[in-house]
Specification:
The protein is mostly helical. Helices cover about 55% and strands about 5% of the residues. It has two domains: about 210 residues, Rossmann fold, CATH 3.40.50.620; about 90 residues, Tyrosyl-Transfer RNA Synthetase, CATH 1.10.240.10. The model has no long low-confidence stretch (mean pLDDT about 95). The structure holds adenosine-5'-diphosphate and tryptophan. The site of tryptophan has 13 residues, from strand 1 and helix 7.
């Protein structure tokens, strides 16, 4: 049997997963387990660049794990683990840092955005180093494909560059990964029309407790002041964009036609979206809550995953150590 290619991705435990996380990364990652060897992890080292609350970190790590399992990740086949259970990635990050120019890191969008917000001297070295650790996450597992949302593309390109630099310096030692961004999934808009993101506080969490709770957030989605009777353009509507993600093709086409025809108000669209969100995520919510109520079992899954992941990382890091002239891992 030919070996399956490895798919790898990570997500920071900085809060409860939202629609952007789900459609950008979680859903495509879970789907890939059918065709690839899936390696997914909770990026808790990365979360330390922004969070300082140990209880939140632990809670969110369990939430992410329960989310993946509730939505169908099979821990018998896939490897699901905590980034920090494989400390070898910190070692590889150092090897990569030593062949990476400051210039490459200074061009990172996230770094530039952070600079615009404040004084460069106040920015943590961890934030600056973030792309190096992320490259190490990817390269330490000989990953072939990395399913992520569009906003992570630059980070994957930087990982490709770093693999190239290390390979150029020491001979072929790291595998060059490819990003996998689903062409049909646009960046998911938030309730204020900007990109949905925890940092903007404009998210719709996927496991809100009920249809009523979904509707409450959906009601906050910004719309223009067109009256019920007026025709509306579905292509510029956040409501329609979100509905298309969770409703069937038929239902979405129907909503778009009603927009164009007039006599259909934003209130109607909001009701339909609330219902569709509940229909899409409601069934997995029961599993999610049951899993979250058993943190010991989540820890077992993470420990099993870490064992398998660590064996791969030790092999790769061992290879790099030998090439650069260090002794074998103790
Ligand atoms: P946030 O911006 O809320 O902090 P993260 O940076 O933790 O989200 O993103 C985790 C994953 O979810 C990444 O792969 C990212 O590309 C994806 N993602 C986040 N927000 C969106 C969005 N609005 N649309 C598509 N994908 C997204
Ligand atoms: N930076 C990613 C995010 O914010 C999380 C992440 C860390 C990651 N390491 C990774 C994603 C490795 C893919 C591969 O979403």
């Amino acid at each position: 049997m030919t070996r399956r290619l490895r798919a790898l991705s990570g997500i920071k435990p900085t809060g409860t997963p939202h629609l952007g996380n789900y459609f950008g990364m979680i859903q495509p990652a879970i789907a890939l387990q059918e065709t690839h060897e899936a390696f997914y992890f909770v990026a808790d080292y990365h979360a330390l660049t922004t969070g300082r609350d140990p209880a939140v970190l632990r809670r969110a790590s369990h939430e992410i794990t329960a989310t993946f399992l509730a939505l169908g990740l099979d821990p018998a086949g896939a490897v699901f683990f905590r980034q920090s259970d494989v400390p070898e990635v910190l070692e590889l990050a150092w090897q990569l840092a030593c062949v990476t120019n400051m210039g490459l890191l200074q061009r990172a969008h996230a770094y530039k955005a952070a600079l615009e917000k404040g004084d460069a001297n106040e920015l943590s070295a961890g934030t600056f180093f973030y792309p190096v650790l992320m490259a190490s996450d990817i390269l330490a597992y000989d990953s072939a494909v990395v399913p992520v949302g569009r906003d992570q593309l630059q980070h994957i390109e930087m990982a490709q560059d770093m693999a190239g630099h290390l390979n150029a310096a020491y001979g072929n030692v790291l595998r060059r990964p490819e990003a996998l961004v689903r062409a049909e999934v646009p960046t998911v808009p938030g309730i204020d029309d900007r990109k949905m993101s925890k940092s903007y506080g404009n998210t719709i969490d996927i496991f809100l407790p009920s249809e009523k709770a979904f509707l409450k957030v959906v009601k906050q989605i910004k719309t223009d002041s067109k009256g019920v009777d007026e025709p509306k353009d579905p292509e510029v509507s956040t409501l329609v964009a979100l509905y298309r993600l969770v409703a069937s093709r038929e239902q979405s086409d129907d909503m778009a036609a009603r927009y164009r025809a007039g006599g259909y108000g934003y209130g109607h669209a909001k009701d339909a979206l609330g219902k569709a969100l509940e229909a899409h995520f409601g069934p997995a919510r029961e599993r999610y809550n049951a899993l979250l109520a058993r943190p010991d079992e989540l820890d077992d899954v993470l420990a099993q995953g870490a064992k398998r992941a660590r064996a791969v990382a030790r092999e790769v890091v061992g290879r790099v150590r030998e090439k650069v002239g260090l002794r074998a891992l103790p």
